[in-house]
Specification:
The protein is an alpha+beta fold. It has nine helices and four strands, in the order αααβααβββαααα. GO terms for molecular function: DNA binding. It comes from Victivallis lenta.
Amino acid sequence: MGKKNKAAKRLARYRAEARQEALDREIISKQTAEALYKLCLPILPEYIDDSQECDLVGREIVFKMGITAWNLAVTGRQLRIDSVFQQARLSPDEQRMIRQEIIELVDRKNRQYPELRFTIEDFQLVPEAGSVNLTVRLGQEMPPPAVPGMFLLTSEPEIVSPASTPGIPETLRSRRKAKGLSQIKLAEVLGVSVKKISAWEHGKSVPTAEEQKKLDAFI
């Protein structure tokens, strides 16, 4: 009888520990999702266009970049950008811009969330009442890197870009960022909407001749 009681107590303890571990992981998962969202928030306006409906595609691009940066910061491993955007057709300029965005995100993650050490395996975006709920699936918990901030992004082969509006999206965005301007600030200066700036940078529309003159004069 004594042995059965001990076995039952041991089983109950194991189950309690498993429940607590699952609860702890769920809490960390929510913390990580919130941190990832805040990490990507500054660049979201540059990639999304909600003028027609909630732009899930633009958000997916941003959070893929965020997860790439997150895992680089956590693991310090080598990673190719083209392995993250296998279905995308990126021009060399777009590759360079995304590379720089990821480098900046890595630095921000290391500064703002050094205590969160789990990798992120996947994420899900679910529209909810006019907003989007972000959840993540955690991977392994990693020890702090021997040399903080060390990571490597290898260069990608040149990939042909779709020619919807040749040159305009990447040129405009690179010139704007070189001036240190947000889309909001540039829109205010030019007297146009942020959605219009976003549409230009996504190749969904092009500036009129008058708008192009203003752009050339300012940036």
